[in-house]
From TrEMBL:
<keyword id="KW-0210">Decarboxylase</keyword>
<keyword id="KW-0028">Amino-acid biosynthesis</keyword>
<dbReference type="InterPro" id="IPR029066">
    <property type="entry name" value="PLP-binding_barrel"/>
</dbReference>
<dbReference type="InterPro" id="IPR000183">
    <property type="entry name" value="Orn/DAP/Arg_de-COase"/>
</dbReference>
<dbReference type="InterPro" id="IPR009006">
    <property type="entry name" value="Ala_racemase/Decarboxylase_C"/>
</dbReference>
<dbReference type="GO" id="GO:0008836">
    <property type="term" value="F:diaminopimelate decarboxylase activity"/>
</dbReference>
<comment type="function">
    <text>Specifically catalyzes the decarboxylation of meso-diaminopimelate (meso-DAP) to L-lysine.</text>
</comment>
<feature type="binding site">
    <location>
        <begin position="288"/>
        <end position="291"/>
    </location>
    <ligand>
        <name>pyridoxal 5'-phosphate</name>
    </ligand>
</feature>
<keyword id="KW-0457">Lysine biosynthesis</keyword>
<feature type="modified residue" description="N6-(pyridoxal phosphate)lysine">
    <location>
        <position position="64"/>
    </location>
</feature>
<protein>
    <recommendedName>
        <fullName>Diaminopimelate decarboxylase</fullName>
        <ecNumber>4.1.1.20</ecNumber>
    </recommendedName>
</protein>
<feature type="binding site">
    <location>
        <position position="246"/>
    </location>
    <ligand>
        <name>pyridoxal 5'-phosphate</name>
    </ligand>
</feature>
<comment type="subunit">
    <text>Homodimer.</text>
</comment>
<feature type="domain" description="Orn/DAP/Arg decarboxylase 2 N-terminal">
    <location>
        <begin position="37"/>
        <end position="294"/>
    </location>
</feature>
<dbReference type="InterPro" id="IPR022644">
    <property type="entry name" value="De-COase2_N"/>
</dbReference>
<feature type="active site" description="Proton donor">
    <location>
        <position position="359"/>
    </location>
</feature>
<feature type="domain" description="Orn/DAP/Arg decarboxylase 2 C-terminal">
    <location>
        <begin position="32"/>
        <end position="386"/>
    </location>
</feature>
Length: 432
């Protein structure tokens, strides 16, 4: 079983020492529950490693992994910076009173409205992704008579080992300027012509759920190759190097993630090596972890409903959620681990497949998992759903969105209310 979960005397799964079965009685299912201590522990693993090495750094929580007012407030308490990719994520951060100067905005198609809002609220930095955006940004800055720090997102041509859909640093990518075909240089030269725009450095993000450090260190080498070239040819200085997020976490026993501090150490060592070799100034290092801060701190609790046994084929056990609260299995064939929360150590086991309740054959949460024999109304806990679970949840089949509870210091606290049917239809207008 995956940290930080344990089992109490009743054989019930606990999270942050609270009985998950009791939580479902109080809040219903499906229910996301986060152990806030674990979120803090993950955040500190990054922050403290930089501190111990005396490195100037910003650890920006990639709020796309799970954005809510309470979560942004935890990020603020942990002195993280924040990565947002939309007006919605920015709005949430503003509502959480997150310090604006520590907000960075991403996006491969930032709209005029998004850029205007970012400039209006004086966020810390915009990560420029394409030529279209440069013109929009210059226009908005002139109009609002403001200045803005920017990073240039480049794709370093790295094929990280992960699912194709979550690969982002390769040449054939919708994100960023290509380093090798001259577009990145063209972008930086163009950005440097605007007095209102201050180019602070480069950004790259090679992908997500990555278990090795090689992809990151190779990317750093390529970035430094470029930085040295630009420094020699047109005196370009990179005060900041943002190497993105993407650090892998444990979903099942087959995943062997590195300790989070190992990623940071590898990044620092490689950057130190390159700085020395190329005789350059040590940049401030920024990273953008999302999944590795919240992923393994969260789980989802479901109630079991129908059970369909097809003799000699399979036993389908259906729960009261599915691809509406966890799209990842359907989208990436992502694998998860689970237990029966009210009978974790049950001796009599059977192999089942855990199905969601959407009208899609592909709405399966886990294929072929061995669990204690299940009964209707048992509670299933699916682990490591803290990242890209709630944030990618949707209204397919008009299922209302689940509730989210934070657990800390032996207390549970509702941080996102369960949607009502009324909430769900609030924007529907009558045609009668
Ligand atoms: C630019 C950028 N930064 C950070 C992240 C966060 O990645 P992860 O949640 O894998 O740490 C992503 C998502 O892949 C991203 O696209
Ligand atoms: N949503 C993806 C990762 C993409 C992250 C953003 N670039 C996941 O669930 O794994």
């Amino acid at each position: 079983m995956i940290h930080p979960f344990a089992v109490n005397g009743d054989g019930h799964l606990t999270i942050g020492s609270l009985d998950t079965v009791e939580l479902t009685k109080k809040y219903g299912t499906p229910l996301f529950v986060y152990d806030v201590d674990k979120i803090r522990e993950n955040a500190r693993a990054f922050v403290d490693t930089f501190k111990e090495r005396g490195i100037q750094a910003q650890v920006a929580y990639a709020s796309k992994a799970f954005s809510s007012i309470a979560m942004i407030q935890v990020a603020k308490q942990e002195n993280l910076s924040l990565d947002v990719v939309s007006q919605g994520e920015l709005y949430t951060a503003l509502q959480a009173n997150f310090p604006v100067e520590k907000i960075h905005m991403h996006g491969n198609n930032k709209s005029l409205d998004e850029i205007s809002m970012a400039v209006e609220y004086n966020i810390g930095c915009i990560v420029v992704d394409n030529f279209y955006e440069i013109d929009l940004l210059a226009h908005v800055l002139k109009e609002q008579k403001k200045e803005m720090d920017v990073l240039i997102r480049v794709s370093p041509g790295i094929e990280a080992h992960t699912h194709d859909y979550i690969l982002t640093g390769n040449e054939d990518s919708k994100f960023g300027f290509d380093l090798t075909n001259g577009q990145a240089e063209e972008a930086v030269r163009k950005l440097m012509t605007f007095d209102e725009i201050h180019v602070k450095g480069l950004h790259c993000h090679i992908g997500s759920q990555i278990f090795e450090t090689d992809g990151f260190t190779m990317a750093i080498e390529r970035l430094f190759h470029t930085l040295k070239d630009w420094a020699d040819r047109f005196d370009f200085k990179s005060d900041v190097l943002n190497v993105g997020g993407g650090f892998g976490i444990k979903y099942t026993e087959n995943d062997e993630p590195l300790p989070l501090s190992t990623y940071v150490t590898a990044l620092i060592d490689k950057i130190s090596e390159q700085v020395k070799e190329k005789e350059m100034v040590f940049p401030e290092i920024w990273i953008e972890p999302g999944r590795s801060i919240v992923g393994d701190a969260g789980l989802t609790l479901y109630s079991i409903g129908s059970v369909k046994e097809i003799p000699n084929v399979r036993k389908y056990v259906s729960v009261d959620g599915g691809m509406t609260d966890n799209l990842r299995p359907a989208l990436y064939n992502a694998k998860y681990d689970a237990v029966i929360a009210n009978n974790v150590n049950g001796k009599e086991k059977e192999e089942i497949s855990l199905a969601g309740k959407c009208c899609e054959s592909g709405d399966m949460l886990i294929w072929d998992i061995e669990l204690p024999k299940v009964n209707q109304n048992d509670i299933v806990a699916v682990f490591s759903t803290g990242a890209y679970g709630y944030s990618m949840s949707n209204h397919y089949n008009r299922f209302p969105k689940a509730a989210v509870v934070f657990v800390e210091d032996g207390q549970d606290r509702l941080v996102i209310k369960r949607e009502s049917f009324k909430d769900m239809i609030q924007n529907d207008l009558s045609y009668e």
